[in-house]
């Protein structure tokens, strides 16, 4: 009979700790540590080969946590060993490992204990682990992350430039209310301060692309009446240096984005681009987070992964309001937020959904959160059924949901006993029960059976006694 053993790996920079447990969480191979080098990888192969020779009818299930890339070398090596060894390897979420460890009341945190926590998680939650998954988005993820880093750097430089313009050339800021245009950057590269712009000739300013004669005239006149408090040479040099860096980053971002579009010939990306509001960059960003839609059994699971699912707390009499969970990493939610913000303007169906939530009295940010959840459900359906975006599909699903929305779940939980107002409950609960009883009395009677209409499931519930 084949027996499974579990290899837990805690990866650190330059080395990793290992431990092997059996199905009963007993230590079979005690902790050992190897370096992330050629010799360390070879030693691991010899150890695993010797272990499987000792237990011939066995299989090793190994896992590493996602640690920002330090685990990739070990993961690639173990994946290559699968052709020669009875070995399966997985990359798992450290969030689940951490909570599983807390459930066992472990208070000691060491590399050795962390490796054991990984192995125990594989044993306790086998349904949460997917082995031998190939990451088709590895190279695309690196380029996408690089573009994101460049964009962040550009925003930081723009913020710094704006703060300098406020004291050196504040009149130009009126043309940068939405974004810093290319002509503005080229103007500042040539005339960084209001003092220099005031001395410029009209013909020289007009030579800058996209600057008309009237605009050039306004710029010069405004500069002559400027309230700028700084016009020294050092401030001008800093502004020129910032502008040069921003222009270089703009070119690099455009180049990398074009390369991303040319190299990303993935069917799922093209499918997502059929949704108006999702471009190549956003589609790639969604897919490197989702990886495979088969990882999620429902759209609710996907929403939970992104941290946009609604949550509320109900215990006894207490009930807190609904809100977005915001669990997990914030980067996927930032991407989804930008998609939703664009779609509420340019996608007619999403714009309709957004307006509907606003009419219900929801704040704008809360309505935008509801739109994020809706978009993610649509994305799940598109990927699950391999179907391009069609708003009529979601309209039909919404209509179907409205037909069943009156079915109350709390009635099903009380199917064995109706609520009793004489029970020793709190005043708040007693008030709820009286309101419930009053609503049952006011319900219309069934014409044939002369019994109260019951809102629960007919196959599991019984009418109240009269």
Automatic annotation (TrEMBL):
Q: Where is this region: Disordered?
A: 425-466
Q: Specify the Transposase IS110-like N-terminal domain's residue ranges.
A: 7-168
- Going by the entry's taxonomy, the superkingdom of the source organism is recorded as Bacteria
This entry's Gene Ontology molecular function terms read: DNA binding; transposase activity
- Name its GO BP terms in alphabetical order: DNA transposition
Q: Pfam families of this UniProt entry?
A: DEDD_Tnp_IS110, Transposase_20
Domain named Transposase IS116/IS110/IS902 C-terminal is located at: 270-354
Question: What is the name attached to this protein's record?
Answer: Transposase, putative
Biological source species:
Melioribacter roseus (strain DSM 23840 / JCM 17771 / VKM B-2668 / P3M-2)
